[in-house]
Design a protein that fits this description.
Helix content: over 70%
Number of strands: 0
Distance between the termini: 25 Å
Structural class: mainly alpha
Shape: flat
Radius of gyration: 19 Å
Largest sheet: none
Number of helices: 7
Length: 146
């Protein structure tokens, strides 16, 4: 995804020509990447569902609730990507590499914390999780200092 974002700078220029803000231009850069990824995901899922004969799960009990959760999660995920895109532009030349590292490290730390809160890790040793988070946070500090 970062490659797609990095190579869509011409979209930003086109938006600037029409007088759009940096925020609008940055968010528009995600469209080709996310739409193509979405289409690929839909096609792959449809093929898998029908190949395995599991299309009935689309109307099974609880599928409506799962669909609502899916769209809620998608909105949060897009918001995170939008913030990443804005920060890349603010960071300048280092933004495309350091920004992607920081974005993914933050996502991992948040995922670990959420997993601990929801009990996902209840039967697992926590030591490696804490060590991994400490390494990621140390890397953030290191990148911030450079």
């Amino acid at each position: 995804m970062n490659v797609g974002f990095a190579h869509s700078e011409n979209i930003t220029g086109q938006f600037a020509l029409f007088g759009y803000s940096q925020t609008a231009a940055s968010s528009a850069r995600w469209m080709p990447v996310l739409v193509s990824g979405c289409l690929a995901g839909i096609v792959w899922c449809a093929i898998e569902l029908f190949a395995k004969g599991e299309q009935k799960t689309l109307i099974a009990k609880g599928s409506g609730t799962r669909t609502i959760k899916l769209f809620g999660t998608s909105i949060v995920w897009y918001a995170a990507l939008l913030l990443y895109g804005l920060s890349v532009d603010m960071l300048g030349d280092i933004g495309k590499s350091a920004g992607w590292i920081l974005f993914n490290a933050l996502a991992l730390v948040i995922s670990v914390m959420w997993g601990l809160k929801t009990g996902e890790w209840k039967n697992s040793p926590k030591g490696l999780l804490y060590i991994g988070c400490a390494i990621l946070i140390t890397a953030w500090i290191f990148i911030a200092i450079i």
